[in-house]
Amino acid sequence: MKRPLLLPGALLGAVLSLSLAGAPQARAQAIERSTALSTVPDGAGGFNAFYGDTFSGEQSGSAFVDLFTFTVAGTPFDAAASVTSSFLDSPGSKDLLITGFSLYRYDPQTLAVIGNAIAGVDLTGFGSNPVDSWAVSGLNLASGAYALRVDGQVVGAAGGSFGADLTVSPVPDAPAYALLLGGLACGALAWRRVPGKKKAA
Prior knowledge:
alpha+beta, Jelly Rolls, six-stranded antiparallel sheet, five-stranded mixed sheet, 2 helices, globular
């Protein structure tokens, strides 16, 4: 009587891997893209940028990670950004599911994250197929290279898209604040010494 052939665990795993290698993937590959932002000066030392991404129906079911990079030099700055997905009328579901939005500083040479990422806030509403809406902001950030990261999944049969914006403004330095406060103090003093102003009895 012949005994059944038993394969050791490691060999069984190798055989399964080889047999699945030629089979179509059950799960779509993640989409990863990186783009340098095109910025527009705001005339006050800062800048604005508008950006986004579009996914086709063939990418439905895929997860995605989009990085939008920019550089700031000089004084510390404040940054605020938002992202909103567009609904393309796919039956029964949103086209995009935004799962994360963050801002972080990184080393352009090694691409390593410097410090902690600033997590965005999910402002998505309720109801049937609400439009995804996220926002993130950072105050008094140091000069350097930064990235805005959008994480999500294409869930609609027709693909989907999102649009976003970024505003970067320099933080006034201490002498500028001192000058402003000095001007306000002088104005208050001058107002108190206006001739003809009667004191209350």
